[in-house]
């Protein structure tokens, strides 16, 4: 190279090396680009990408008079731009000395003393974390070789990893690997000397790069294949059907050769199983894949069956009311107080002395109070919603894919009013307003997320580690969906574990996980064996048995005394519950920032803890009494209409009716539960001269008939509500 004098040909470090025989010029592209005394005065096709050969000669002659401050040889064409700094150096020498070269604007260069640095508060440095590209450990200290993403607190990278990714992805695809931010991320990386070429991604430029994806692997790789017709024989829906590895797809087995059950959809090859074991998924159980197996329409979705890690209930265990046959769906939310109306428009009611004197537990009172305060906070966030509408076409039988498609469409904005239209669905609520359809959509979505492979655990769930979900950025989308549901009037998730909630609100450095947070049965058993070891020899033996797992988790430590087991248990819990899922957790946090929900969670943790971590209490007659505002006249009071309504609520609560309190709410509002943000407009009760009750879901108004006797009132209520909901369900 005429500028640096080196013969190295390394495009990734020095740029493309070009030789022009007719001009007797060989030059590295980066050496030319960063030289201080030359500019592109020609057109794109002239000289070397606009650098004229006459200008290159002048720059070589200028550099010949300057000595490199690093190698002490002549020809230093690059100078530090810092005022009063006289240092000059060759480009390769600057790389070795950790100088910064900015491939933007005027292509400035900074020496090792004046280079820009990332300023990070000392309190945000938390020891070590993973480089989110190569997954090796990095010290959380900003140096030349270690950089932090500007958009994510926990996104740390090796400089070399970032540079290789930038060269491969190009300016159109280079972005933060955690939150997918592009503008802020690229600006910071250019400032810190990462070269982002103006080209398409390398994988987009390869001809026929994806041809192998069109081929379906059909071969049995088990050592002893039992099929007499050969390893390539495949007969669907029989014991000779070939199942492919759910992770790599490049290994297969006959159902009979691996003794699979007919209903088992997932199988892992030995290679993938060993990789997962080393990465910390210390489980011999078959875990659910994020992609459903062989859907008829060829699409992928999160599996909706209950988590295999959730233990079955024994016959004597009382079942939750969420699974009662009279309940249509499981996600009821905490009751929200209605806004106070003028006394002339509101009748203050009280339940019977027996009900009003019923003592609530302290926990229940606390949850209700916090739920109401959270409702007021969410109502303030709801003021961001504009009248501009976005319609989502949803297939209830494929709720995840259709929701994901809707949330990712270009026209979608969280601040738009959402309208839901159900398509190709037998369970479409034909008589529902758009508000009722929206309640139903968010209800199905929250139920799906609860049972998806993004979360693990029984009732209190933590984030799981799903590599496919990380690649497809699904943790971010899940957080975004939960935030949108809370603000737009949908149900709350209600299944967060205390550890997950604390990680989101207080940060991972302030959270200490417990054994209950471990959903993997094998890991839990290993921790128990270490925790309850009663001698140093048994402790040493247990550690030896699970050496590979502890080594992969980075938890190996010298054991000199029995008390060392406590620190070892803490290390394993911290790795398995938190460190292992740092990347999914950060993406999930970014999603929850939608509409300012995470910020409010961090400002009011006590208020949001109740709605995110607890399933709401069952509806009670008192709850519905507080929820509905009663508009009545003196004529209604004379015939006892209000007393009939109150008596009916108590009969329903005590089981003396064919309908439930949830049915009454659904009949009136189209919602299965009281959303955390409350109803808009607020539910009301009106007494009219009509034959049967009417649920006006557009106004959330329950119109009741005026009758002479309570028996007639109850009969009409039971008949109308039961049959109206039966038609909808059918």
Automatic annotation (TrEMBL):
One Gene Ontology molecular-function label: ubiquitin-protein transferase activity
Keyword Phosphoprotein appears in the UniProt entry: no
Family matches, as SUPFAM superfamilies: FYVE/PHD zinc finger, Hect, E3 ligase catalytic domain
Annotated InterPro entries: EPHD, HECT_dom, Hect_E3_ubiquitin_ligase, PHD-type_Zinc_Finger, PHD_PHF7/G2E3-like, PHF7/G2E3_ePHD, Znf_FYVE_PHD, Znf_PHD
A Pfam short name: zf-HC5HC2H
An annotated GO cellular component: nucleus
Listed pathway(s): Protein modification; protein ubiquitination
Keywords from the named record: Metal-binding, Nucleus, Transferase, Ubl conjugation pathway, Zinc, Zinc-finger
Domain PHD-type: 1-115
Localization in the cell: Nucleus
Classification via PROSITE patterns: EPHD
Protein name: G2/M phase-specific E3 ubiquitin-protein ligase
Organism for this UniProt entry: Dryobates pubescens (Downy woodpecker)
